[in-house]
Amino acid sequence: MASNPPGKCCTTGFKHEGTPTGKVVKVAGKWDAYVASPPADKAHKDVAILYIPDIFGIWQNSQLLADQFASDGYYTMVIDILNGDPLTLDQFGTVDLPKYIEQGSTGDNPHNPPAIDPIVKAAIKALKEEHGVKKIGSVGYCFGAKYLARQFHKGAGIDVGFFAHPSFVSEDELAAICGPLSIAAAETDSIFPVDMRYKSEEILKKTALPYQINLFSGVTHGFAVRCDLSDRVQKFAKEQAYCQAVAWFNQYLL
Question: Boundaries of each Dienelactone hydrolase domain copy (predicted)?
C-alpha cells in the first residue's frame, strides 16, 4: 500500500459555515453531482476539476470547496461516488468501515472499486461530452484519492491530479499515474504515515513525472476538508493545501 485503508480518523471533523452556490445535477441519469460554475470573466476555457470526495460525499464542506475552485476559474464537479449513501459526522465511532465499504449502509450498496469506478468514469465522460471539457484536473480527498488514482492512467481521461491525505491507494495504482501529481499530507496521519509518504516519493520519482508532496505540521488526517477553522494552525494548513491545489492546476492544467 502507498496509503493505508480508511480508519476512524476518516469519519471525524467539523462542518464549515457558508452557503453553497452551485447546483445538483444527474450524471448518466443515475448519480448525483454538485457542480459549481466560475464567473464568466474568470472562467478557464476547456478545463474542469473533477472533485472525488471522502466518505462524507456531497455535503456542506465539499460544496464550499467546489465553489472556491469555481471562484478561481475552474468549472468543478463533485461526483457522488457513494451513490446516495454518505456517512455523517455524527456516525463517528458507530460505523464498521470495512463493512460499510463492502456493503454500504443498507447491505446492498457497496463502495468498492467495482461500484465506484463506473461512477467516476461516467463523470469524466459527462465533463468531456456534455460540457466540452478537453482537459481534466482532479482532486481526491482521503477515500476519494484512490479513485482518482484508478482513473489517472493513460486513456482514462484525468490529466492532472491532487491528493489530500490519501487513503487506500495501492503502490500499483500510484505507479500507473500518467500526469503531474501533487499531495498534501498531514504530520499526524496513521492512514498516510511517514513510511508510506517516503514510499510514495520513491514511486513518484520512478514515474519521471512532475510531483510534489507538501507536509503540514500541527494537523491530522482530513484537515484539508474538515478541520477546525477556529484553530489558526488548522485553518492555515487547510487554506495552504487549497492554494497548493490551485497553483498545481494553474501550472499543469492551463
Answer: 32-253
| Active-site residue flag, 142 | yes
Structure confidence at residue 95 as a pLDDT band (50, 70, 90): confident
Q: Are 86 and 54 in contact (CB under 8 A)?
A: no
199 to 24, 170, 244: CA distances (angstroms)? 38, 11, 21
**CB-based burial label for 176 (10 Å; 0-12, 13-18, 19+):** middle
**Domains recognised in the chain with CATH numbers:** 8-252 (3.40.50.1820)
Q: What is the pTM of this model?
A: 0.93
Reduce the secondary structure of 139-198 to three states and give it as a string.
Answer: EEECHHHHHHHHCCCCCCCCCEEEEECCCCCCHHHHHCCCCCEEEEEEEECCCCCHHHHH
Asked if 189 is an active-site residue, the reply is yes
Q: What is the pLDDT of residues 193-239, one digit of tens each?
A: 999 999 999 999 999 999 999 999 999 999 999 999 999 999 999 99
Q: Which of 142, 159, 165, 227 is catalytic?
A: 142
Cβ neighbours for 179, distance < 8 A, ≥ 6 positions apart: 152, 158, 159, 160, 161, 209, 252
Catalytic residue among 10, 80, 189, 227: 189
CA–CA distances in Å: residue 50 to residues 23, 41, 118, 160 = 15, 21, 14, 10
Output the average pLDDT for the chain: 93
80 carries an active-site annotation: no
Q: What is the pLDDT of residue 92?
A: 65
